[in-house]
Amino acid sequence: MRDNAPHGFEIPIQILKRLNFAHVKKYKNHYITCLQENIQDKVFIVMTSHHNVKLKKEELLWLELLIIYVNSFIGNAKVIEELSN
């Protein structure tokens, strides 16, 4: 996996490998989710707070739904791009 994370920011590879699409996982003061997944790559979003913020169940559900919508938008954009070529 490519590492585009800022210096000093590390998440164990085991957590990233087990993270399924649109599932939000808390790790230390970070929330991590898999935005897209295909045969070769996984695209993650990492949200960090300098304070110890704990998202409520409703907020996590809202975040998961937003991730599904963004994934759908990206997939549709790719189809449109392929059709226009």
Can you give a write-up of this model?
A hairpin with a 2-residue loop joins strand 1 (24-27) and strand 2. This protein is an alpha+beta fold and 85 residues long. Strands 1-2-3 form a three-stranded antiparallel sheet, with helices on one face. It has one domain (13-84). The protein is built from two helices and three strands; from the N terminus they run αβββα. The protein is globular, with a radius of gyration of 15 Å.
How would you summarize the topology of this molecule?
Blueprint: H1 13-18, E1 24-27, E2 30-37, E3 42-48, H2 57-84
- Number of E-type strands: 3
Fraction in beta strands: 15-25%
Main sheet summary? 3 strands, antiparallel
So what's the oligomer here? single chain
Radius of gyration: 15 Å
Instruction: Provide the residue-averaged pLDDT.
Output: 86
Structural class: alpha+beta
Strand order of the largest sheet: 1-2-3
Number of domains: 1
| Molecular shape | globular
Per DSSP, the total helix count is 2
N-to-C SSE series?
Answer: HEEEH
Helix proportion: 40-55%
- Poorly predicted runs are none
Compute the separation of the termini in Å.
30 Å
